Amino acid sequence: MNIRHSIATAALALIAGTAFAQTETPRVDQRQERQEQRIEQGKSSGELNRREARRLERQQAHIANAEERAKADGTVTKAERARLHHKQDHASARIARQKHDAQHAPKAASAPGN
Description:
Strand content: under 5%
């Protein structure tokens, strides 16, 4: 009976470990963080105006919500991961487009006489 208990415990631990691993999305999280940094850099450099930055930030929030929904049932499937990566690809391209378009944040007014 003790051996059966050990085997059952090991099997449950393996299953639990596998289920936990399936909810982790480190690549998605790393890309999300990097894209948020790109937006912040664009805001501080003036490459993104307020409206562009707000839209890009909303898009990042949408991706974060999609990730949470994918994790909600305890498993992030291959298809869900693919959808998240597709959303991130789209967001990345949009960030690049917005940072390199002709629109820029207004520069701060300089003091008179400068």
